[in-house]
Amino acid sequence: MKQDTQLNKVTLVLEPEYGERLAVLASAGHVWVVDTPANHQAAKEYWDQTPNSEAGFTITTFKFSETASRLETFRSILEIVDLHHGGYSSTPYAQLEVIGLPLTAKARSAVKGLGFDHVGATAEGFRATRSPRHTDRLQVKMG
pTM here? Predict the structure, then answer.
């Protein structure tokens, strides 16, 4: 199902114990989450209960190094997330929500490098958004 660009959001969860709260995030957009026992169990329950999400959103778990910092994990997965949901996607994401990592200069630089123009702190991490003009350019480039 084609999603409205306005609603095309990706949430990246770096919190190892986010667990059951993942389903709420998946109701509003794609979710990528560190693969820990608590998060994997919650993702599995979501997959079992919502095999073909009507909105077309899903939860993707990813492996990470437990010795890496959250910033290192963020930087290593960000390019993969962008490959799946960025300019090569039929509906590029306009918003990236990051949970479990505070907004730092390095995190801001990483998302700005992907074309996100507005970046701000949230209670659980930070949110980055692309202007509609930038998202439209991504769609034209692929169209």
Answer: 0.87
pLDDT, tens only, 56-76 = 788 999 999 999 999 999 999
70-85 and 105-112 helices, crossing angle to 10°? 10
Q: Cα(21)–Cα(33) distance, rounded to whole angstroms?
A: 11
Element (H, E) at 79: helix 70-85
Question: Residues near 12 by Cβ (< 8 Å), separated by ≥ 6?
Answer: 31, 32, 33, 74, 77, 78, 81, 96, 97, 98, 99
Strand partners, 126: 98, 121
Rounded CA-CA distance 111/107 in Å is: 7
Q: What is the CATH number of domain 5-142?
A: 3.40.50
- Span between the terminal Cα atoms of the chain, in Å: 17
Break the chain into its structural domains and give their ranges: 5-142
